[in-house]
Structures
1.
Amino acid sequence: MVIQLIQFHQLLRPIKAVFLMFLIVSITACGQLIANAKKEFAQDLSTTILGFNDPETIKKAVPAYLILISSMIKGDPDNPDLLESGAQLYSAYASGFTDSEESKKALADRAYLYANRALCIREPTFCDAETLSYFDFKKSLARIDVVNTESLFVFVSSWAGKIEANSSDWNAIAELPKVKAGIQRVLELDETVSNGNAHLYMAVMESLLPPTLGGKPELAKQHFDRAIELSNGNNLMAKVLYAEKYAKMLFDRQLHDKLLKEVLEADVEKTNQILINTLAKQKAAALLLEGDEYF
């Protein structure tokens, strides 16, 4: 069991990279919520964050928005849009920037609380999602319609973040099948949600185990390819995870290096995701350096 627990720690780790992609969207949404005070604020904030190529500055700046959005939720606790914005922001920061495990758990737990409350308001059958059996959870998923697809994605992605932050807890890990079922339902309803990132989540999940242990790498490959296609090739982190989780698992050095070199050669200034693509370039460079040791 100890060995299995260590494996789960390693398997859940790549989910962190996916959350970084929601940071920009989350901060933008937070800005939109206070656009009544200054209509241009949301656009200005969005443009600034999207165009930032210094992750360290973002790491220092975002905590102020965590406090801001929590205060706004306290004043309007039944606003699902506000709750979902808070969930995304807390999830992104917990996975990408916090320095301590305790802080990570606290932020991820709050993100899940906000996301669960929002979906509960929209669809009451999800109010006790953690206590539902897998069978009953699947029935609740069937009730979700296309209008609430994005809300469902915020919920299951926040839940994945909570599991990753509490990966030493077997009770948390046991909820992964529900998260996977939720992501599958998102894909059934609208695969384009969040620029195709539901495919990236599924790709990572399908890459958790090698074929000899029941993994489905070819299915993972299909999801990676589709995530990249839906982003028009601009999601460089998708290529990094493709190399790290799929190519390395199959010991495909040619594909591994090809994907990472494409990331390093890409011009992030021509994309609308400069921050996340800057992070992707940093990770790609590190993975290339480690290639000789792994292969």
2.
Amino acid sequence: MAQIIDGKAVSAAVKAEVAEETAKLRDEKGLKVGLAVVIVGNDPASRVYVNNKKKACEAVGFQSYEYALDESTTQEQLLDLVNVLNRDDRVNGILVQLPLPKHIDEKAVINAISPDKDVDAFHPINVGKIMIGEYSFLPCTPAGVMRLIESTGTDITGKQCVVIGRSNIVGKPQAMLLLQKNGTVTICHSKTKNLKEICLGADILVVAIGRANFVTGDMIKEGAVVIDVGMNRLDNGKLCGDVEFESAEKKASFITPVPGGVGPMTIAMLMKNTLTAAKQQAGIE
């Protein structure tokens, strides 16, 4: 039976580190850290995420600036706000909550955020830096996954690592981070053939495909570390991941639960990125 990787405990440790450093920098250097979060429309899930980010800011000692815009906000109005925040010295990090309403081009908005304040690490400049291993910020979910793997004591060097999913937000950067830790990485997706056989070769399996209970225990190598990035709601209202937990737990050495695994890490790493941005903007190493 697998050991459960407690994302709540690991994320609490990350936030405690950030809070300690934030307090120290405030006392010694007079540095205040500010995160601006922009939400457009009334998507319930987005509202929950934004509220959680505000709570996290309070917990670590950041200033939180929320900009809640109407669904009818034009792309031009949103871009104008982003430009104002780019120039606002109180704001060290800018996060525009996705998804945006259909009439707004997400790519144009992401590209408008200053790379120095892009704490989601979605800007093409930051994505490019991840490719060459010279990054300031890492996308929050892949960075959180790396911290969870680290918490198990697993050495990634030389391990067979399989990532299921090739999104720009999780799959692709996840593969790069595992590669930078000397893992041997295979990226799988909807067109991959012989997926089960590939998964059975994985020492570390990261699943981010967005399909409920897609990976089952018979696809998992005995003793593998299994990280489930998925978050799906079943017809009965229950949340589940992309990995069928009960059968996978019998095969894995370590496994993340859903909820309570990767989810809490995403916001913790966002806090870490925002602190990094504030230090860089203040010229503090």
3.
Amino acid sequence: MRSLRHLPRAAAIFAAFHAAALPALRAQPTLKDTYRGMFHLGAAIRPDQVNGRTPQAAELILREFDSISPENVLKVGPIHPRPGNDDSSYDFAPADQFVDFGVKHKLFTIGHTLCWHSQLPAWLDQQQKSAEPTITKAELTQFLRDHIMKVVGRYKGRVHGWDVVNEALNDGAGGYRQTIFHRVIGQDYLVMAFKWAHEADPAAELYYNDYNLDANDAKRTSCLELIKYLRANGAPITGVGMQGHYNLNTPSAAKVDETIKLFADLGLKVMITELDVRAVGAAPVTGAVGAGGGGGRGRGAPPSLTAEQQQALAQRYADLFAVFVKHRAAITRVTFWGLRDTDSWRRASSPLIFDDHYQPKPAYHAVLNAAKSAGPAKAK
């Protein structure tokens, strides 16, 4: 290292300050350290955040989180855009980079998602939009099996948990969403998907993932019935993912608490899989895909929140994490859907705990402080 006397005076002063401040910064508590022994803290990430193009993002991921989920690269359309099941039918490169990053840094790595009605390859999306699909039950069953076996098998032992089926339930009155898989194959596709994923990697955890489970009683009831159906038919389900796309006041913390307990009482692991909170007064997001954080992003910079909005957002996160900490015997992971406000599908409402410049918001400190109510850490 060059001596400071060889640097211009201003640079020398800055270097001396940085050298003195760095140990103190490193000594500050982080999310993953604070919650170690309770549950994993994760973030949904994009390719540029793990392939070297945005090193500041990678640094933040590794400092604060011990789990990662892919925002888009493991969804059916992006990874399997062409019909067939040889390597030319798949685009593995972005997913390989994501998984390699997790392996290299010993992160609890999640695969999202093996079966979803949105972000399908174009040829299959056309079938889904058709009033009378021409694809046969045998053809679609073979495609789904091939896809799950190929993708899960490729990452066997390196992806620790999979969102096997995503958003299979209706909003409103509940019941099953009429996806291409349900219309053509029937309800059994749900059981098949879990069995194939388990066959491809018997050690991986397998989840059902959905949104509004704590905001819609009918949908929650449908999900509880779905879990029972899966188990009755031998599907090896490990847990349920509650997506956690919240507003400032809804659903209530009491409703979140109640819902976690209902799933935990079934003996399931519970994950908060796509956490974000829309702040008061922000404009609706534009360009978002899917009700459950589909991966689209609004245009423009996230808005700056007033002091009052920052405080309200922090209080909401504090209330939610108090519930998560209370249920730490059942909850195994909490994942934010995005690293910073700029990366969020709800960016127009500044919903995350890091701002546009990777700086912690008051909500970040609220999340750290919520862990203090837990008492001594429990062994996992």
